[in-house]
Task: structure prediction
Amino acid sequence: MVNHTDTSVVTIERFIIEQERLIPHATGELSGIMYDLALASKMIANKVRLAGLVDILGEEGSDNVQGEAQQKLDVIANTIIVKALDHGGRLCAMASEEEAEIIPIPPQFRRGKYLLLFDPLDGSSNIDVNVPVGTIFSVLEKVTDGEDGTLEDMLQKGAAQVAAGYVIYGASTMLVYTTGQGVHGFTLDPSIGEFLLSHPNMRIPEHGRYLSVNESYEQLWSDDVRALIRRYRGLDGKREAMNVRYVGSLVADFHRNLLGGGIFAYPANAKSPNGKLRLLYECNPLAFIVEAAGGAATNGRGRILDVQPTELHQRSPYFVGSRADVAIATEMLAT
Ligand code: AHG
Ligand code: MN
Ligand code: MN
Result:
């Protein structure tokens, strides 16, 4: 006898269709982008899983626009996403952490009304030591005339996103995304190659256990940032100490805090006056997700989704996670 109270088996494809039915004017284009991203994630997961066995560990021997040594998997993941999404007819341009300029849709393919911005492999310095890495993506709708997406289309505030998500290649491969109607997590069952709904309607606790920050920069922080981190650590006696957990992969730190509550902080420091994380394809998509899950994200002065971008690869100080914990950052830094 089937126990109908159990969660039935819901593949991401079926979930996307059900979500689409909730939006009256949906054309299915956004659904198509989500399908293609799920496919690309499975292909990247295969490469990440095998990284130790085939010669794709280590550095590509080139630098990206950020001046960072590209890992071979950075470049492979970037190519997988571009090739999986450039011909579906739903996008009019893409932008990647790994490419200096926006990525046009090849002339032979139809253009759509959406733009995809992504970090193909986040935390890539961790690949060789088998620490979880991820992919982060953000979807915007074109605002300019003409068929092709432009830089102006990319430089929209994070609040304009129509979808955002990430994949974490960890003990299991999970895809977490939102189109604004709740945050939903899917776990890849490698035996059937399907992402199955495992975390419906994810909510971040109002305040949390974890503090994720790289304290090796303490000497480079401003006094107010130092005071803030001391507050989180309970060293000023104003609150109980938080558990410090820092993996060095934003996606892995963010995902743990989404589940257990807490805050991830990458403040500005004397060497990086705008912090390290990139606004358009790291800070904004995760901020869109955390707000849809009941959390918050700030650059220390205000809501990060309200920041007007001026450059494709611009960086931003970043505090993201439980609402009550982020509020402390805004309170102590916004002066
Ligand atoms: P990426 O690998 O895409 O460049 O991102 C790395 C980022 C982020 O994942 C992580 O939180 C941060 O770099 C760690 O930086 P530090 O080593 O300076 O703490
Ligand atoms: Mn990254
Ligand atoms: Mn990256």
